[in-house]
Design brief:
By secondary structure, this protein is α/β, with parallel strands linked by helices. 43% of the residues lie in helices and 19% in strands. It has two domains: 4-224 and 404-417, Aldehyde Dehydrogenase, Chain A, domain 1; 231-379, Aldehyde Dehydrogenase, Chain A, domain 2 (3-Layer(aba) Sandwich), CATH 3.40.309.
Length: 424
Amino acid sequence: MKSGIKELEEKGTAAKAASKKLAFLSTEIKNKALLNVAEALIDKQSEILAANKIDYAEAKASGMSEAMLDRLMLSPSRLEAMSQDVKTVAALPDPVGEVFEMRTLPNGLQIGKKRVPLGVIGAIYESRPNVTIDISSLCLKSGNAVILRGGREAINSNSALAKVAQGACLNAGVPQGAIQFIESTERALVNQMLQMKGVIDLMIPRGGPGLIKLVSENAAMPVITGGMGVCHTYVDKSADLSKAVAIAYNAKVQRPTVCNALDCLLVHSQIAQTYLPSIAEEWAKAGVEMHCDEQALAILKPVSSLKLVPAVDEDWGKEFLSLRVAIKVVSSLDEALEHIEKYGSGHSEAIVTEDYSVAMRFLNEVDAACVYANASTRFTDGSQFGLGAEIGISTQKFHARGPMGLKELTSYKWIIFGTGQVRP
């Protein structure tokens, strides 16, 4: 059996070679490959789910948290959703080769930009097998080769999915080596990958704070990080309370183990007495534990059958990834904005209000990748934004922000047409 280092070096070389051909691959071949992948996810469902069952059982036996187990688990419906996302990517316009911002200078030179792939994308990720397909499909459509290094806890699932994607792509005429999956789970490989600057053009970590920190501090190449998603929803004094209940309920309960789920509810003091019991009663039906500041606790204590906990300092700025939420009563929009600025992670923030000027101030002043007025933060997702799948959600400002789709996996080069011009 090859050592992990040897495997990584060989697959890195193959990915680099494939990237040169992928950059010029026709849209027709790329789309055919993607549709093959979408079909194969359903056709080979039984073997994929069998592999996932092994990972899930081992992870559960090892004491993995419910949040992580939920991310690890595959099901027929999740495979169907993955398949649909791949089809969406196939249906999107191919960004590679797009010429934009062309203009003619006073000296007659025609100058503009042409969109090109980045080259080789490195992905290091934990727990979520769907990332194997999401990243592979987006890299393929954007003309990039990819080197995938998943976590030990999902090795069987990721390996099965990678084989399905590789076979489907080869059958469509995609160059061999376009999708590389590292089978070795040796820990040393992560640090080795982070030093492969001559091979990997962009590194994308998907996982917990520990992995994000390791990659961002040690990578020799550019890194796109998402970090934590500490998401707030502020219910303003002018909010439609029925909308506010539905939005906060969805943001917390629909899938609590993901980065765009609600972590902290901020409620204006003028409507807290009316609104808090309404949302708390709905959350209680789903088993939500509420970590309340003094004002919220005083309002909710008389309501029966609630899971109430006095909030502590650590509850502000905490990504719960579970059916727990922090609640704070604020006296103004300014106080809400100050709280979000202090404790937000730059991921997704929302306001519920019927006051247009308040909504616009929130949208303008909150510094986050995605800022919502009167909608759930659960929409922060490449598929929901019409990007197909996503390679990650960036909370940075360079070079991409929010859900990263096809265009975020490309760069551009300047193209200049002349008629013999020389610089004076």
